[in-house]
Amino acid sequence: MKTDDFIAMLANGAEPVSHHVAERRFALSMAMGLPLAFAIVLGFGIRPDLLQVLGNPMLWVKFAFPGSVAVISLLLALRLSRPGMETGSLPAGLGLPVLGMGVLAAVVLFQAPPQEREALVMGSTWQVCVANIALVGAPVFVASFWAMKGLAPTRLALAGACAGLLAGAAGAVVYAMHCPELDAPFLLVWNGLGMLTPAAIGAALGPRLLRW
Amino acid sequence: MADMKANEQRLRALFLQGLDGNSASYQAFLKGLSTHLRAFLRRRLSALPDDIEDLVQDILLAVHNQRHTYRPDQPLTAWVNAMARYKLIDLLRSRSGREALHDPIEDDLALFATNDHEAADARRDVNKLLQQLPDNQRLPIVHTKLEGLSVTEAAAATGMSESAIKVGVHRGMKALAALMNLSMKATT
Q1: Does position B1 have pLDDT exceeding 70, yes or no?
Q2: pLDDT by residue (tens digit) across B32-68?
Q3: Domain residues for A193?
Q4: Residue A48 carries which DSSP code?
Q5: Which of A77, A105, B99, B183 has its Cα between 20 and 30 A from that of B92?
Q6: Is A10 a member of any domain?
Q7: B126-181 maps to which CATH number?
Q8: DSSP designation for B24
Q9: ipTM of predicted complex
């Protein structure tokens, strides 16, 4: 087929197209993924003292740390899903919550007596934290890959990593309703690893799953 | 440079009208775009001259299938350039990546600086690839995109529902892109 005929074929009967497909796909994927993530945490059980600790600022830090990572990685995912969009200051923005958490963790460790420092980092649930966050984030992982698959990422490993980070961060936010830990050093290390693990899996899967 | 800017503005205006459903503007956009793509690829694919027209068609179909990812406040050049690079690198990698290694494709935005109206024949025949699609994708494409029937007329002609016609065109064009991609990588 000659290119001119091919062009005529493409243009023939071309329907109007919305400019907001990317936003809609990600909104839908969050609407599917987050309730499923919550359902998994209900299976684990909500921490029984949740109401008592609502007044503890560390609970809100615990939501805000992965929450801000989730919001930034969602904005980044939208950009990486569209060809030729610059990522701008968003990657640097991801460093801010990590930096804030790092400073807080350092202060807590510095002020604690040396014999208590290990417990502040390891908590009582470090063996399960990373795997649980990844599990809770799994529905968001699938949903955000689905959202990207219908768009056109051109940097596939990066896009996959971003979708994975979004899943890990969303998983950490929802998992915070179950997890009993409230110490900044623990949250930095284990929530951080819980977010990075799905990101690494996403980076590995992106080039295979997101091709178009 | 002034030309590039004028080309960007002209093509972008046509494209935006096309996204609103104006088929004539959309066709003019694709036609203009094809001349820039051809010149762009001729510079970068000098070792594979027979592949140029096939890849022009590949990229045009990618632009068509992914047109919902364009943001109206984004430079059209950047959007098209990213897709053209993606498709070009994909092809070079499948051809053992010799050229890709020697000649890294710089991230330039000069896509609209040159054009080339001389289309060689595409090696691959899209008509033959269309035959490989299942009927529920092939018939909607043949009726609405080749014969120019409306969705309603195509529904009447095939006994399919109007939404099945639309879905069939949409999925069929994606499947066609995959077939075109495969056939391009298979030829050496």
Answers
A1: no
A2: 999 999 999 988 888 888 889 999 999 999 999 999 9
A3: 21-42+58-82+97-107+125-212
A4: T
A5: A77
A6: no
A7: 1.10.10.10
A8: H
A9: 0.88
Put simply, the answer to whether A7 touches B31 (Cβ < 8 Å) is yes
Helix axes of A90-111 and A114-122: crossing angle, nearest 10 degrees: 140
Tokens of residue A126, six digits: 């470090």
Check residue B46 and give its pLDDT. 82
pLDDT digits (tens, 9 = 90+) for A90-115: 999 999 999 999 999 999 999 999 99
Which of A14, A81, A154 lies at the smallest CB-CB distance from B23?
A14
Instruction: Tell me what pLDDT residue B97 has.
Output: 53
**This prediction's pTM:** 0.91
Taking alpha carbons only, the member of A188, A195, A192, A207 closest to residue A167 is A195
Q: Give the pLDDT confidence score for residue B49 in this predicted structure.
A: 84
Mutate to test the interface with B, among A2, A9, A149 (most CBs of B within 10 A): A9
Could B71 and A85 be called an inter-chain contact, meaning their C-beta atoms sit closer than 8 Å?
yes
**In this structure, what are the phi and psi dihedrals at residue A82, rounded to the nearest 5 degrees?**
-115, 125
A87 Cβ under 8 Å from any chain B Cβ: no
Report pLDDT digits (tens) over B86-119.
Answer: 999 888 888 765 554 455 555 556 788 788 887 7
Domain boundaries, chain B: 2-121, 126-181
Per-residue tokens: B35: 């001349």
Share the mean pLDDT of chain A.
Answer: 95
CA distances from residue A102 to A105, A108, A175, B88 in whole angstroms, order as listed: 5, 10, 20, 42
> Taking a C-beta distance cutoff of 8 angstroms, is the pair B147, B157 a contact?
no
CA distance A121 to A79: 35
Cβ-based contacts of A25 with chain B (< 8 Å): none
